[in-house]
Amino acid sequence: MSEKQISLFIDGVEISVKDGSTILEAAKVAGVQIPTLCHHDDLCVAGNCRVCVVEVEGRPRLEASCATPAQEGMHIKTSSPKVRQARTDIVALLLSEHNSTCTSCYRNQNCELQTLSSEFNIDTEKYMDICEYEAIDKSSVSIQRDLSKCIRCLRCVRTCAEIQSVNAFTAANKGHEMKITTFMDLPLNDVVCSTCGQCINRCPVGALTEQRYYHNIWDAIGDPKKHVVVNTAPATRVVIGEGFGYGVGQRVTGKMVSALRRLGFDSVLDTDFTADLTIIEEGNELLQRLKKALVDKEEVALPMFTSCSPGWVKYLEHMYPELIPNLSTCKSPQQMFGALTKTYYADKVGINPEDIVSVSIMPCTAKKFEANRPEMRSSGYQDIDFGLTSRELIKMIQQAGIDFNNLPDSEYDSFMGKSTGAAVIFGATGGVMEAALRTVYEVVTGREIPFKNLDITPVRGFDSIKEASLIFENCLPAFSFLEGVEAKVAIAHGLSNAKILMEQVKAGKSPYHFVEIMACPGGCLGGGGQPIPTNEEIRTKRMKAIYEEDANMPIRKSHENPEIKEIYEEFLKEPLGHKSHELLHTHYRGRNRY
Questions:
Q1: For the chain, how many structural domains are there in total?
Q2: Are residues 145 and 183 in the same domain?
Q3: 328 is a catalytic site residue
Q4: Does the active-site annotation cover 25?
Q5: Is the same domain home to 185 and 304?
Q6: What is the CATH number of the domain that holds 242?
Q7: Is residue 134 annotated as part of the catalytic site, yes or no?
Q8: Which of 74, 122, 228, 430 pairs with 313 at a CA distance of 20 to 30 A?
Q9: Is-catalytic flag, 368?
């Protein structure tokens, strides 16, 4: 059944759009870009900045195009003198309340207010500066908040409420006293915050940014006594190019590795190595839990939840502490890598762990929090010294004056640098589940999973919650207890979707055995440390690139990684063994809700 269409006129051009479209959406169909600030494709309509006003024939006042439905026969002017003057005044008023130190701002040249100010040529102080300067909130190790740059668009409030169900931010007071604040106006570190950074991704200005540590990395690289090791997450390789003019979704793995070497890192390694290791440990943990439940008839916390996403883990600690036993005890690939860097790697290369600086390049601001958790010191040191976002790496490459586009491709260092396609797909929602199923099914049955080219399509895509099931048949003798068992799995991305699954588990109504949660929309490819802007179209292109990388890998199953086999033979001995539990596993704790 076709959708009803309506006709209207945009700047004198007749167009047809779907009934129910806004004027803003209709203008896009007409090829007209209307400026916005409070609007974001991922969020509900706000209509409070008024930058997107247009003139509608027959109406006495200008209308916010993002919040006004398009109607049959409308005549709309998007750039009349009246509209342009209104937009100029609105932007000028916003600038009068805004800390306009643009040249030293982290968002300089990637700021929506700055862009509009340039487009409308607001080069004089049309209105008196009434900006209120406050101390920058640096209490969180992940997120920095500067209220002097806030334009009260409410994007952060809507992001935290709609996408994440955390509500760390709210709007307080009215009129000119209105401000974006936290519970009891407390510092960000003292309120319930998953540190996911989704608010940063949707902030149009520099009011919210990640805490930046690249200056510490420069100091470490410049210290001849330090051996600086870097590992890069799966989702970084499909976004770094965006900072250098590449189209969204272009894979630049080889150039990124070359850039890291040019920056001066002593060893360039791949977090995908420990993503493969995570699958071995997590897969065996799941099988162990199922055996205890089915054979030993023990009370076991099922479904088991993945624990790779630190924003998700912190959310669970705050909101569902009673379900912490359901979390896999596996550390994330970042933290496994850190623990091994200062033990296995240090011994292999003959370097004192005290002299090693371990750096991770992540798509995530929550990784900064995770690196500083007290649980993450099993090597005897802080396992990961510094977690940098993809944006910070782009900034470092720019600071070094490296011509990224003309770099040759190069490979990761061979030691702790070899990985599989299963590890690459960790970067997309459903990827951890797919990687786990590829290995677990083969371990249990001795056969490849019965999906064409190993592509488990039911767990892919951006549906809010995805489900899949797999029946184990003709199991190997060691796993005969699984014969005929229908393993049911679920995947959620975004904490609002995670909340739905958690309520099911809490009520005792969950049918699943294994659940993957990623805190960010789309998974790591939409992480809070990825290049800005973000929307579903961008995330879709990044996801496509991740699966292309997987398809082109020579090895696509974690248990076939030769370096993984080697580390068990030489160091870890066996999955879930003593050394693995000591270095690769941990336990989490409940946190206050307020």
A1: 4
A2: yes
A3: yes
A4: no
A5: no
A6: 3.40.50.1780
A7: no
A8: 228
A9: no
